[in-house]
Design a protein that fits this description.
The complex is a heterotrimer of chains A (260), B (237) and C (499).
Chain A (H helix, E strand, L loop, with lengths): L20 H4 L6 H5 L13 H19 L33 E2 H16 L1 H4 L17 H4 L2 H10 L1 E2 L12 E2 L8 H12 L12 H12 L8 E2 H4 L16 E2 L11
Parallel strand pairs in A: 2-4
Antiparallel strand pairs in A: 1-5, 2-3
Helix pairs in contact in A: 4-8, 7-9, 8-9
Chain B lengths: L2 H26 L6 E2 L2 H4 L4 E2 L8 H9 L65 H20 L11 H10 L33 H11 L22
Antiparallel strand pairs in B: 1-2
Helix pairs in contact in B: 3-6, 4-5, 5-6
Chain C lengths: L6 H16 L1 H30 L12 H33 L6 H24 L14 H21 L8 H27 L3 H36 L6 H14 L16 H12 L1 H16 L2 H6 L1 H23 L6 H4 L3 H31 L6 H34 L5 H37 L39
Helix pairs in contact in C: 2-3, 2-4, 2-14, 2-16, 3-4, 3-5, 3-6, 3-7, 3-14, 4-5, 5-6, 6-7, 6-8, 7-10, 7-12, 7-14, 8-10, 10-12, 12-14, 12-15, 14-15, 14-16, 15-16
Classes of the chains: A mainly alpha (260), B mainly alpha (237), C mainly alpha (499).
């Protein structure tokens, strides 16, 4: 930077031949720094009433929002509002009812998925078994006959000859009753009795199935499979109120619905 | 204000929030605890601890890398926090032919298998919590309609899969007439070049991973009665 | 006036100059590279918003997928512009307030270059598809320790300056500045450690990410902005800050309330029930510190109306403080759990609030600081008051558009989302006008940034005016011996013939 002293006769000196602005004013400070005010700090005015009121309003609103935590503050195990029940959708019909269906159809449908999980493996998807190891359920006397006898075979398993007198290669049918609920038993029985060409046409109700479960539990040796001889004492239908298979019911609740 | 007061105040004010709102909840909720069934009410025993099916890790990564979370969310809020629950198909189905009302709010098990729950920033596009279920339903409806209209000419090879619906959406979101309004960006770079006559070309691994991830979003399974917040839930016989 | 004969004022001026000179390189680097990143983030933001409205735009290029562009836009805005502008301002501010030179400028400059390198790598990674998918933390996981290290090398000297300062009055601006410098590494390190290192909790990771976003806004950008306001208001007007007690309330309210906010963005998600409502309460209560800061600084600025009209720094600062107040008020309005929170949670209100906070409040105050600092650090004055005016006006248009249409309009967008009886198409259609408004706002900002960046670049290249008279926005004094535009008077006082 040039340090030439200015010539008094030039009015607008060339940009390049200049004296540094700072030295022109005789100090080592920039003009900008020199013209700054010293930081004056803060005064002692108190918070004004209007500001206080504004803050108070916001504190009240904030407090109300905090109230939404409704007793679960710092409760890390609760991840939903305590005692939450869903609101109904405003202006919309609440529960949509599915069209009612005959109870037999519904039981058969539900029984189908249970059958494919439990019974398919041995008795086959068509219920015919394989002729040598597993008996057929199609037209079988025990499957389509008295419900009590049929229920005990399913629940306890079978040892020895079947309704046709033949002994099958598998030897023992394992008990299926473990962990089975009465409703599930009712579904399976209804399904078998009304599928694969069987047309018994009746519905085994949960009430009847419960009676079957109770009966199985009261056997002298509940863990052993039944035999053809033992089954002779069960040649009757399960106790319970019979249901008209054509009754229309709600598909989900299985409660009878008046036809519209 | 002295330096000591400043330091103390900063530590206390920040430290309390840091500890109680960030660190503690993080570590206290890191383990998912299964929810036991109550036999009398649920009619079954055991615990509710669903596992998400399908390969979701790679798909979740593709989802994150392409910023889908900017416009899509993955949370169904309880009714006190919003109306997501009531919107058709978002929380489940109100009248599912098999199970009736399958709707439910998001629960802690819904984000398993992901490193970061993509709750999402904004809802320009719809919520994706149940997009898998919705696509399944759409595919079934499309197949039924096609079967009816074609009658004998129907063959199983014409079946529309839910995955194909998603591939079509990813390749060109506006190809479907009913979705012309969609502002979803097309991720055609995740597909090969289209051959003659192809409406949706072969997908590359990224697209397949993403579709697998989206199809795993079926958050409408049956929950234990203790997690069922319906006004008409079973209370035991 | 610059002809102060008292020697202590002379000493002050010399000390200030020495401090400014010691910081020239890092500060100018942060400002200029920050402005460049701002320009880039605006281009990306405009592209992202345009693609939200017209998705066929530039379709087919994987690097320009909307999601990636949006992630890159936010990341460059925050880490490229926001953090760098803040660093430049904070290190200068604390140096001036503690009256110490910064003797580690070389290291700070090198760390600044490192920060830029990491941000560049991170942005390219996002566009190539290696983003993490964590909002505001999209840079690949390994970049965060690098950023924290660079930050440490930038800020440690400043913290030392604060520690060893001479005893005496502690200025309000200092608390906010040091607070910001302490809070940033804590929230960033916590988020990094919990989400990327420890992990294993997808839901709480999302909650921590939301807490981090709020922490960046309220515990880094807001206090930096407040520090600038509390420094410039008394400096430029020469009046003391109105009400020390109000400023004290402002600082401690922010310190106590700020760290709790953020998780209201996850209301309804299966995280511990109380967390989102605690966050919502904190977000509402942020109104208290913003009101306190706004009241004390605005009353200081308005005590001197003629300075207000003339000084660009003061004008930008005042606008920034007004936006801060607006931020607080909107925070109360949009976070009410039963009424407005479901509307604002997933609508463009959240993006609009981010823009209001980062651009309206923080950036305006950073511009005010930059217009004040750069002449001192480069020893040149700004070249064109028209450039400054254009910068200000276009930015104002943008912020008003975003504040009204983006934030408030977003509530209408949210209402459309909540109307579950109508198909989703309706909600998307509702968002359109507000998305277009946000796009327009960013276009205004891009125009204003053009003026700013060119102006700043010229100053960085030392092409500013050599003058002892600052570039002011009002009309110059008629009796100014330096001429109406503050001409060069290097020939010495009185050598210029008045014309």
């Amino acid at each position: 930077m040039s340090q030439d002293s200015p010539s008094p006769s030039s009015s607008r000196p060339d940009l390049d031949e200049v004296i540094n602005v700072t030295t022109a004013h005789g100090s080592q400070a920039t003009a900008a720094a020199a013209r700054e005010y010293r930081n004056p700090g803060a005064d002692k005015e108190p918070l004004s009433i209007a500001a206080f009121a504004l803050c108070a309003v916001m504190l009240i609103v904030g407090g109300a929002v905090l109230g939404k935590t409704s007793g679960a503050l710092f409760d890390y195990q609760t991840s939903i509002k305590p005692n939450y029940i869903r609101d109904k959708a405003p202006g919309v019909a609440d529960d949509v009812a599915l069209p009612p269906k005959p109870i037999l159809d519904l039981y058969v449908k539900k029984g189908q998925s249970l059958y494919s999980a439990k019974c398919n493996g041995c008795h086959g998807a068509d219920g015919k078994g394989d002729g040598a190891n597993y008996p057929s359920l199609v037209g079988s006397a025990w499957s389509t006959g008295h419900t009590e006898r049929f229920s005990q075979v399913i629940l306890n398993g079978l040892q020895g000859p079947t309704s046709t007198g033949k002994v099958y290669g598998a030897g023992v049918m394992p008990a299926q009753g473990g962990g089975m609920s009465a409703q599930d038993l009712a579904y399976i029985m209804t399904f078998i009795r009304n599928s694969f060409g069987n047309t018994v046409g009746d519905v085994v109700t949960a009430e009847m199935a419960q009676a079957a479960l109770d009966l199985a539990a009261k056997r002298p040796n509940p863990s052993a499979p039944v035999t053809a001889d033992e089954l002779k004492q069960y040649e009757k239908d399960l106790p319970g109120e019979k249901v008209d298979p054509a009754t229309l019911v709600d598909p989900i609740t299985l409660q009878p619905v008046a036809a519209k | 204000m002295t330096l000591r007061f400043f330091t103390l105040g900063m530590t206390a004010s920040f430290g309390t929030a840091w500890l109680f709102a960030v660190v503690l909840p993080f570590f206290k909720t890191i383990e998912l605890k299964p929810v036991p069934y109550v036999e009398a009410v649920d009619e079954k025993t055991g615990v509710y601890f669903p596992k998400r099916t399908g390969q979701i890790t790679n798909g979740a990564k593709v989802y994150s890398q392409n910023g889908c979370y900017v416009c899509h969310t993955q949370v169904v809020r309880p009714t006190y926090a919003g109306n997501d629950f009531h919107r058709d198909g978002w929380a489940g189905f109100k009248a599912d032919p098999d199970r009736g009302d399958t709707r439910r709010e998001s629960n802690v098990f819904d984000y398993q298998g992901e490193e970061f729950a993509q709750i999402g920033l904004m809802r320009i596009g719809p919520d994706l919590s149940n997009v898998g279920s919705r696509m399944e339903k759409k595919a079934i409806a499309a197949n039924t309609a096609k079967k009816e209209s074609l009658g004998d000419a129907w063959s199983d090879s014409m079946k529309v899969t839910p995955e194909s619906l998603l591939f079509s959406h990813l390749y060109n979101p506006r190809s479907n007439v009913s979705m012309r309004w969609s502002t979803c960006p097309s991720v055609a770079f995740m597909f090969e070049e289209p051959k003659a006559g192809e409406s949706v070309p072969t997908s590359k691994p990224d697209a397949r991973a993403l579709v697998g991830y989206l199809m795993s979003m079926k958050k409408n399974d049956a929950v234990p009665a203790s997690m069922n917040y319906s006004a008409s839930k079973p209370t035991g016989k | 006036m610059s002809h102060d004969s008292s020697s202590s004022a002379e000493q002050d001026a010399i000390l200030r100059t020495a401090i400014d000179r010691s910081m020239r390189h890092p500060v100018m680097f942060f400002f200029t590279s920050g402005a460049l990143w701002l320009a880039l983030s605006l281009v990306l933001g405009i592209l992202a918003m345009a693609k939200m409205i017209a998705p066929e735009l530039l379709d087919g290029l994987p690097m320009l997928t909307q999601g990636r562009v949006f992630a890159a836009h936010i990341s460059t805005l925050i880490y490229g512009w926001g953090c760098q502008a803040a660093f430049g301002v904070l290190i200068w501010l604390v140096a001036r307030l503690t009256r110490q030179e910064n003797r580690a400028s070389g290291i700070v400059l090198a760390a600044g270059h490192a920060w830029n390198l990491v941000v560049s790598v991170g942005t390219i990674a996002i566009l190539l598809g290696y983003g993490t998918g964590v909002p505001w933390l999209e840079f690949p996981a390994m970049t965060w320790p690098a950023l924290l290290l660079a930050y440490a090398l930038i800020a440690i000297w400043t913290m030392i300056q604060f520690r060893v300062r001479a005893a005496g009055e502690v200025f309000v601006a200092q608390w906010f500045a040091v607070g910001a410098l302490i809070w940033l590494p804590w929230i960033m390190a916590t988020a990094y450690a919990l989400i990327f290192v420890i992990g294993g909790n997808p839901l709480m990771s999302a909650a921590v990410a939301a807490w981090f976003r709020s922490g960046m806004t309220y515990l880094f950008f807001l206090p930096t902005a407040a520090a600038v306001a509390y420094y410039l208001a008394p400096k430029i007007t020469g009046r003391p800050i109105h009400s020390y007690s109000t400023s004290l309330i402002g600082f401690w309210a922010l310190a106590i309330i700020g760290p709790w906010a953020g998780m209201q963005k996850l209301a309804g998600a299966p995280i511990p029930y109380f967390l989102p409502y605690l966050g919502a309460a904190a977000a509402v209560l942020i109104g208290v510190p913003t009101a306190a800061i706004a009241i004390s600084t605005l009353r200081t600025m308005c005590a001197c109306p003629e300075k207000f009209a003339a000084s660009p720094s003061l004008r930008f600062s005042a606008a920034g403080v007004v936006c801060m107040l607006l931020l607080g008020v909107f925070g109360v309005v949009i976070n009410l759990p039963d009424s407005t929170l479901p509307l604002s949670q997933f609508s463009i209100t959240s993006y609009g609030m981010d823009i209001l906070a980062i651009y309206g409040c923080f950036s305006f105050l950073m511009f005010g600081a930059i217009y004040f600092i750069v002449p001192r650090v480069t020893r040149r004055e700004w070249l064109s008051k028209r450039f400054i005016k254009c910068h200000f006006l276009f930015s104002m248009y943008a912020v008003i558009t975003v504040a009204v249409l983006g934030v408030l309009g977003g509530l209408l967008h949210g209402q459309g989302q909540e109307d579950f009886k109508f198909p989703w198409e309706n909600a998307v259609a509702r968002a359109y006008p507000y998305l277009i408004a946000t796009l327009l706002a960013w276009c205004f900002v891009l125009i204003s940034n053009l003026f700013f960046f060119v102006h700043l670049l010229l100053m960085w290249m030392r092409l500013g005016r050599r003058s002892s008279h600052p570039t002011l926005l009002g009309h110059a004094h008629l009796s100014n011996p330096h001429g109406p535009e503050g001409d060069i008077d290097n020939a010495g006082p009185g050598s210029v013939i008045a014309h």
